[in-house]
Structure to design on (188 residues):
């Protein structure tokens, strides 16, 4: 591992391997290329875990990203490499991502990036933010988000739909109870 923590063993190591197996280098590379398109950084957009972690771990590039999408989203970007300052940057990015409309289930915990616990969740968050960027006139990544498709039915249409029995529930044509017996037969 690239960080200074002791390597995990036993169940923790197994759980970490499972989390790491979900990580996609292609999606990570797509995220870094999208970040470079907006911010001009980083030089290396390789999606391997080591590079992805090194590029994003201090949170400064993430803060620059949200400030490029919408100026002033993160008021103070800490350039210090001290742990709590870096984690403040990551938290500021996460707060900005929520304000952009990234759903809570698509964000990550600060430790997922800072302690390299779940880089896949960081990729998911960046992909989600990438889908929101077009709302601010910036290039976006990933599939285009669906738009609302509100339908208005008349009372007559609603009543007509109530009389129809959907075949989605199957049919009971030809159903009877022959052949059904529960438990033992009755002995007299």
């Amino acid at each position: 591992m690239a960080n200074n923590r002791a390597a995990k063993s036993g169940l923790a190591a197994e759980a970490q391997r499972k989390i790491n197996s979900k990580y996609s280098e292609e999606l990570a590379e797509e995220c870094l290329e999208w970040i470079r398109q907006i911010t001009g950084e980083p030089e290396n957009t390789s999606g391997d875990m080591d590079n992805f972690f090194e590029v994003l771990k201090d949170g400064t590039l993430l803060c620059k990203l949200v400030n490029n999408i919408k100026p002033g989203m993160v008021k103070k970007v800490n350039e210090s490499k001290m742990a709590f300052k870096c984690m403040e940057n990551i938290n500021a990015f996460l707060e900005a991502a929520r304000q952009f409309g990234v759903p809570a289930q698509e964000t990550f915990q600060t430790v997922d990036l800072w302690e390299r616990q779940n880089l896949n969740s960081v990729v998911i968050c960046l992909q989600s933010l990438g889908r929101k960027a077009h709302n601010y006139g910036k290039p976006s990544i990933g599939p285009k988000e669906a738009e609302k498709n509100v339908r208005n039915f008349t009372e007559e249409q609603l009543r007509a739909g109530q009389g129809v029995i959907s075949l989605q529930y199957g049919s009971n044509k030809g159903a009877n109870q022959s052949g059904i017996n529960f438990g033992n037969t009755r002995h007299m």
In short: The longest helix spans residues 83-100.
